Amino acid sequence: MRRGVTMGFEDGSWLNEPADWRLDGDILHVVTDRGTDFWRETHYGFIRDTGHVFEVRTAGDFTAQVRVRAQYRELYDQAGLMVRVSPREWVKAGIEWSDGIPMIGSVLTIDRSDWATAPYGRDAGDVWLRATVAAGVLRLQVSSDGRNWLLMRLCPFPAVSSYSVGPMCCTPERAGLSVAFSEFTVGVPTGKDLHDLS
User: Fold this and answer.
1) I need a labelling partner for 179 at 20 to 30 A (CA). Which of 5, 127, 168, 171 fits?
2) Would you put residue 44 in left (φ > 0), alpha (ψ -120 to 50) or beta?
3) What digits encode the pLDDT tens for the residues 166-176?
4) What's one Pfam family here (predicted)?
5) For a pLDDT cut of 70, what percent of the chain falls above it?
6) Beta carbons within 10 angstroms of residue 52's beta carbon
7) Residue 11 phi/psi, 5° resolution?
8) How far apart are CA 119 and CA 91, in angstroms?
């Protein structure tokens, strides 16, 4: 990404390309492969770096957002947005099916993964996600309508010259989650106040 230039699907490429996907105008359709996941060590002890990400490369700090539509039904079905520095430094955020309900959550990984999650009280089948990285700080936001953006996480994040960011999905326990990603943009950081929810 050249500074000041907004990117989208046309600038992306796959990390762990799924067998079944297509780009139809402004909509990226993906069907997950079996046993795909992102996780490092915590609680379970294993490392997984096999989930699907359609990523673009930034020229430093950025704001990215995407609309995610899917029908989750099996344990750990998940889709959302991912930011990566390396296989040991990344964050993913979105909807994940857990304990029989759709949860909104994020996993921050700096050598080992954490997991912060809560029930999502709106339509989990249609959500917007936004990630802003600026000056070593990551801000994650979620929206039910693409206009009002609630804060879901604020945390330190590695300050580097370039990031990979894009729509993410995976199904650790099965194959076949169908996801439609749209309205994907990556550009300069918004610069909005923390409590500006627009």
Assistant:
1) 5
2) alpha
3) 999 999 999 99
4) DUF1349
5) 98
6) 27
7) -100, 5
8) 19
**105 close to 130: Cβ distance less than 8 angstroms:** no
85's tokens? 């520095």
- State how far the Cα of 114 lies from the Cα of 83, in Å rounded to an integer: 15
Residue 163 phi, psi (nearest 5): -125, 155
What domains are there in the chain, each with its CATH number? Answer: 13-187 (2.60.120.200)
For the chain, the DSSP string reads --TT--B-GGG-EEES--SEEEEETTEEEEEPPTT--EEESTTT--EEE--EEEEEE-SSSEEEEEEEEE---STT-EEEEEEEEETTEEEEEEEEEETTEEEEEEEEEESEE--EEEE--S-TTEEEEEEEEETTEEEEEEESSSS--EEEEEEE----S--EEEEEEE-TT-S--EEEEEEEEEES-----TT---
Tens of pLDDT along 62-80?
999 999 999 999 999 999 9
**Residue 119, both tokens:** 């029930």
d(CA 23, CA 47) in angstroms, rounded, equals 30
Q: Which two tokens stand for residue 63?
A: 């704001």
**From edge to edge, which strands make up the β-sheet containing 178-187?**
20-24, 27-31, 178-187, 62-70, 126-134, 137-143, 150-156
Residues facing 134 on adjacent strands: 137
Distances (CA, A) of 111 to 122, 137, 180: 32, 17, 30
